[in-house]
Amino acid sequence: FNLGISSGAEDFISNWLGMDFDFPRTRVVETVAAINKLTLNQNAAMDGAVLSWSEEAWLRFESRRRVPIYLGAMSPLMLEEIGAIADGGLPLLFPPEHYATVLPHIKRGLARAGRSLDDIDLAACIWCSVSADQTAAEAMLADKIAYYGHAMSPLILRQLGLERADFEPIRRAWHVERDLAAARKLVTPRMMRIGIAGTTDALNDRLERLVDLGLRHLSFGPPLGPDIAAAIQAIGTDVIPRFSQR
Q1: Count of domains in the chain?
Q2: Helix (H, G, I), strand (E, B) or coil at 218
Q3: In angstroms, rounded to a whole number, what is the distance separating the alpha carbons of residues 40 and 119?
Q4: CB 151 within 8 A of CB 164
Q5: End-of-domain residue from the set 83, 101, 122
Q6: 106 with 18, same domain?
Q7: Which structural domain range is residue 171 located in?
Q8: Which residue, of 97, 122, 147, is where some domain finishes?
Q9: Do 112 and 191 share a domain, yes or no?
Q10: If phi over 0 gives left and psi between -120 and 50 gives alpha, with beta otherwise, what is residue 18?
Q11: Structural contact between residues 130 and 203, judged by C-beta atoms closer than 8 angstroms
């Protein structure tokens, strides 16, 4: 069992849940420190900038091991913390080629902690929609982009030549007017570069570039495809074997 932690997106935390989103990086850093202490059977009393825990912060049972922690990240500062404090990282590669941009931030964190890339597991997260039916595959990916695009970090959007304002009509169509069909139509080809839609050949072509950059752990995220079972089967048959021996 590994534990994934992220600050979440401000829109979802603040607007959907009504919770404060102040000091997201500090919250994550202090949370990681606290969990590490707890799973090492130590007292996690803390008087931090965000967490304020008393001497009663200890597990009432024995932890068998320290649980490895993976950080999800989109912003430069959070990407740096992957290198500085985490056992692994879940950098969101939207688009997949974004790996070349996030890696320097992670390396800065590694240098700060006196570590190297060999000390962490980078599980690069990509979105893919796999199907021989190109139109259906693109529709699935467009729906996900319409749902989530407005919450992406400026760092990600800059790689695509986009701004959050470009997603405002889409956000309004879906989240305010609740018209998914209208929102989907507003997703542009440039926005579609966030993920990969089409056959496994299309998926392999773009993954080759990541592997050439040194990436060794790929995480395939939803929508996966209009027929999820078939998409998973195709990835397991045509994609994973191709890269597993690289």
Answers
A1: 2
A2: strand
A3: 19
A4: no
A5: 122
A6: yes
A7: 126-244
A8: 122
A9: no
A10: left
A11: yes
- In angstroms, the CA 161 to CA 202 distance is 22
In this model, does residue 246 exceed pLDDT 80? no
Question: What tokens were used for 16?
Answer: 């959907």
Tens of pLDDT, residues 34-49: 999 999 999 999 999 9
Cα distance between residue 19 and residue 17, in whole Å: 5
Q: Is the pLDDT of residue 12 over 80?
A: no
Query: 16: which residues sit within 8 A by CB, 6+ positions away?
Result: none
pLDDT tens track for 229-241: 999 999 999 999 9
Go through the chain and tell me how many residues it has: 246
Give the count of beta carbons closer than 10 Å to the beta carbon of residue 243.
15
Tell me which long-range contacts 143-149 makes (C-beta under 8 A, separation of at least 24): 143/180, 143/183, 143/184, 143/223, 144/195, 144/222, 144/223, 145/187, 145/191, 145/192, 145/194, 145/195, 146/170, 146/173, 146/174, 146/180, 146/183, 146/184, 146/186, 146/187, 147/174, 149/187, 149/191, 149/194
Q: Distance between CA atoms of 24 and 193, rounded to whole angstroms?
A: 28
